[in-house]
Design brief:
Elements lengths: L11 E2 L1 E11 L15 E11 L2 E7 L6 E2 L2 E11 L1 E3 L11 H8 L4 H6 L4 H10 L2 H17 L2 E7 L6 H17 L3 E8 L7 H19 L4 E5 L7 H13 L3 E6 L7 H8 L3 E4 L5 H8 L4 E4 L1 H7 L6 H6 L4 E3 L13 H11 L4 H7 L2 H6 L16 E3 L7 H4 L8 E4 L2 E2 L18
Parallel strand pairs: 1-5, 2-6, 7-8, 8-9, 9-10, 10-11, 11-12, 12-13, 13-14
Antiparallel strand pairs: 2-3, 3-4, 6-15, 15-16, 16-17
Helix pairs in contact: 4-5, 5-6, 6-7, 10-12, 12-13
The chain binds zinc ion.
C-alpha cells in the first residue's frame, strides 16, 4: 500500500471536505486484475476539494492552500469511493410472496412457473401496474441501494418481454434516472424468448426493439440471458450483433445454471462484462482470463437459491477482473444492499476484503464502461461513503450492518438522513 500524492492545484473550490481520518481507494480507473485487484491506496488525515461535482484536489489536509466556498468536517472518519451496483432488475411491480412460501414448502421452480408464478407473475404485475405505482416501488428500492452505499446503479428492463413492454420499462427507468441524485445506468435486457413465437419475437427484437432503443437513447447497453431455459448462444449472438451494429455496449447473463457457451460468446464479441458464472468451471475461467470482459458475480443469488457461489477466488487467481452486484430482483436475489453483496462475496465467493472493495467500486465501474467513478482522485466524481468505523473493513465484516454513515454523490449528501437541502430526489423516499 502506498499513499496517493497531492496533485491538481485548485485555488477555488465549491466545497472542501476536511477531517478525513483515512481515505482508502483504488488508484485510478480501469479494471484491476490479479494482484492489482487487492491494491488499495491509503491516505491519512486527508482533505478533498469538490468543484462542479468532481474531485478537484485530494491530498494531506495540511497541504491544502486553496479557497473553498464551503467546508465540511468529517471529524476524523474514514472515506471510501461510492459503490457501483452494475447489475440490478429493480424496476418491477407486484410481489413473489406466494412463490417464496411455495419454494419453502418444497415446490420445484418449474412447477411454480407452470402455474403462472415466478417471472410470469412479475411480468403480469409490471404490465398491469399504473406507472406511478411502478415508479414508487422502484424508487424505494433505489433508495435502499443508495442508503447501502451505491452511488451508481445499473437498472435493467426485461420484465416487459414484448417490444412495447420493454420500451415502457426503459421509459420508466429514464424517469428514475432524471430524478435521481445518484447515477442510474439503463440497460436493455432481452430476458426470455416467447415460447409461442420464438422466431417472431427474435425478429421483433432485432428489427424493431434494438433500433428504436438505440435511436431514442433509452439505453447504451444490451444484455441477453444465455441459458437452457432462455436464449441459446446462437440466438444470443444474433441479438448481440444487432446491438453492436446499433452502437450498444454488450453484456451477458451466462453460466447461471449451465455452462452452454455464454462465456465464450461474451469474450468473442468483446462484451464489457459477463455476469453470474455460478456454473463456470476451469474451461470458462481460462477463456475469461484470455479476454477483457469483467466477471460480475452475484452472491445474493447463491444465498437465495442455496446454490454454490461463483468461483470468485479462482477467477481472481486466474487474473480475471471481478466485479460484484446485488442482482436485485423479486425472485432469485431480493437483495436490497450493495454493501451486503460485497460482504457476502467474502463468504460465498472467497474474495478478500480488499478484492471485494475493488470489485464493488472500480471493477464494477469498468463493467459499465465508466472511468470517472469507483475511485477517488482528481477528475473522479465526488461520490464517496463516510464510514462509521475507523477501519473500512468493518463495512464488509458485518452482515446487514454497519452500513455507511453518510453517502455522497457529486459532492453532496444523498442518504436518507442528509439535511433537506443537501439530498437529491432519490434517497428521500420512505420505503
Ligand atoms: Zn440478472
Amino acid at each position: 500500500m502506498s499513499g496517493p500524492r497531492a496533485k491538481g492545484a485548485a485555488p477555488t473550490a465549491d466545497r472542501l471536505i476536511v477531517g478525513i481520518g483515512q481515505l482508502v481507494t483504488p488508484a485510478g480507473p480501469g479494471a484491476k486484475r490479479g494482484p492489482q485487484q487487492a491494491d488499495l491506496q491509503v491516505l491519512d488525515d486527508a482533505a478533498l476539494a469538490v468543484t462542479d461535482g468532481f474531485v478537484s484536489w485530494l491530498g494531506p489536509a495540511v497541504a491544502w492552500n486553496g479557497v473553498a466556498r464551503d467546508e465540511v468536517d468529517l471529524g476524523g472518519r474514514g472515506v471510501v469511493p461510492g459503490l457501483i451496483d452494475p447489475h440490478t432488475h429493480l424496476l418491477w411491480a407486484g410481489d413473489r410472496f406466494d412463490d417464496l412460501e411455495a419454494r419453502l414448502a418444497g415446490v420445484p421452480y418449474q412447477r411454480i412457473l407452470a402455474r403462472g408464478g415466478g417471472i410470469h407473475a412479475t411480468v403480469r404485475a409490471t404490465a398491469a401496474a399504473p406507472r406511478s405505482e411502478l415508479l414508487r416501488a422502484s424508487r424505494a428500492r433505489l433508495a435502499d441501494l443508495v442508503a447501502s452505499g451505491a452511488t451508481t446503479v445499473e437498472v435493467k428492463s426485461g420484465y416487459g418481454l414484448s417490444v412495447e413492454g420493454e420500451l415502457a420499462a426503459l421509459e420508466a427507468i429514464a424517469t428514475l434516472r432524471a430524478e435521481a441524485a445518484v447515477r442510474v445506468i439503463p440497460t436493455l435486457l432481452i430476458h426470455l424468448p416467447d415460447p409461442d413465437d420464438r422466431l417472431g419475437h427474435l425478429q421483433a427484437v432485432i428489427e424493431r426493439l434494438i433500433p428504436d432503443v438505440a435511436a431514442r437513447g433509452l439505453a447504451a447497453r444490451l444484455d441477453v440471458f444465455v441459458e437452457r431455459e432462455a436464449f441459446s448462444p446462437r440466438e444470443a449472438e444474433r441479438i448481440l450483433r444487432s446491438g453492436r451494429a446499433h452502437g450498444l455496449d454488450l453484456t451477458l447473463h451466462a453460466d447461471q445454471f449451465h455452462a452452454i457457451g455464454g462465456v465464450d460468446l461474451a469474450v468473442r464479441l468483446g462484451a464489457r462484462s459477463v455476469d453470474h458464472l455460478e456454473a463456470s468451471g476451469v474451461e470458462q475461467i481460462d477463456i475469461l482470463a484470455q479476454g477483457s470482459a469483467v466477471a460480475t458475480l452475484l452472491p445474493g443469488v447463491s444465498l437465495e437459491l442455496g446454490l454454490p457461489g461463483a468461483p470468485g477466488r479462482a477467477l481472481v487467481d486466474a487474473g480475471v477482473p471481478v466485479a460484484l452486484a446485488t442482482d436485485l430482483n423479486p425472485g432469485s436475489s431480493p437483495l436490497h444492499s450493495t454493501t451486503l453483496a460485497l460482504a457476502l462475496s467474502l463468504r460465498l465467493n472467497r474474495l478478500r476484503p480488499a478484492e471485494a472493495l475493488v470489485a464493488g467500486t472500480v471493477n464494477a465501474a469498468a463493467a459499465l464502461g465508466l472511468a470517472d467513478v469507483g475511485w477517488l482522485g482528481v477528475g473522479a466524481r465526488a461520490d464517496l461513503l463516510v464510514l462509521p468505523e475507523p477501519d473500512w473493513r468493518a463495512l464488509l465484516h458485518g452482515l446487514g450492518g454497519p452500513g455507511p454513515l453518510e453517502v455522497w454523490a457529486a459532492g453532496r449528501r444523498v442518504d436518507r438522513h442528509a439535511p433537506g437541502p443537501e439530498r437529491g430526489a432519490v434517497g428521500l423516499e420512505p420505503s
